Amino acid sequence: MTGTLTVVGLGPGDPRYRTPAAMEVLAKATDLVGYGPYLDRVPEREGLARHPSDNRVELDRARYALDLAAAGRHVAVVSGGDPGVFAMAAAVFEALEAARPEWAGVSVRVEPGITAMLAAAARLGAPLGGDFCALSLSDNLKPWDVVMSRLRAVLAADFVVALYNPISRARPWQLGAALALAAEIKPAGTLVAFARAVGRPDESVAVMPIADAADRASSADMATLVLIGATATRLVAGADGATHLYTPRSVGRQP
Ligand code: SAH
Description:
Bound molecules: S-adenosyl-L-homocysteine
Helix content: 25-40%
Distance between the termini: 60 Å
Number of strands: 13
Structural class: alpha/beta
Strand order of the largest sheet: 3-2-4-1-5
Largest sheet: 5 strands, parallel
Order of helices and strands: EHEHEHEHEHEEHEHEEHEEE
């Protein structure tokens, strides 16, 4: 009997940010495959086998999950946030391209989740109200000069830019370099936000002028999403004294 493979997004951390459809898949799965800390977010249950693996072995993990499904299991491959955003869904399809005969008949589906960029944006206000884009700052899977040339292009085009994977122990200086480039290209009034561990108990957000951002790069970590505002991105005071970061939807018109 052939099983199924569903790539499931767990959302940013808070279990209430997990969709009912994702929870249904997790409730029916016989096997959970994914990076250990993500598996830890799914409660234990009888009849649910867990297969944690290291974060760097995405293709091996995808092949392993396909093998389990081919053996008749109902496999949930889990990712944080959305599984299609810098995560496991693409790795599963990349593995599928090899078209191994033993995988014939395995049905693959993707169940979405709230990606870090959207969770962070909601915490901050509405910084994605205008055109925006997302870049992974990691040079594990693409050369650093590609990262920088894409960043230069989208900053010059005045998108709001969400930077995923801003920093890690193996990549300590890249975020500082990216923010220094941003400070050269953007007007001085441009705002930058660091949103850390959104939806988790240790959540924190900070908004700063772009001139200060590169110096604060070392305060970011692997659980931080960095947002570089567009020229029009600004702060508005709420009636209760809170401040909100937003980008107007109109361009070139006074609100
Ligand atoms: N599939 C995930 C992203 C994986 S890349 C998603 O859709 O969210 C991992 C990067 O996502 C981290 O380095 C960080 O930049 C960002 N990230 C993931 N969870 C986050 C959270 N709760 N708060 C802020 N950033 C987060």
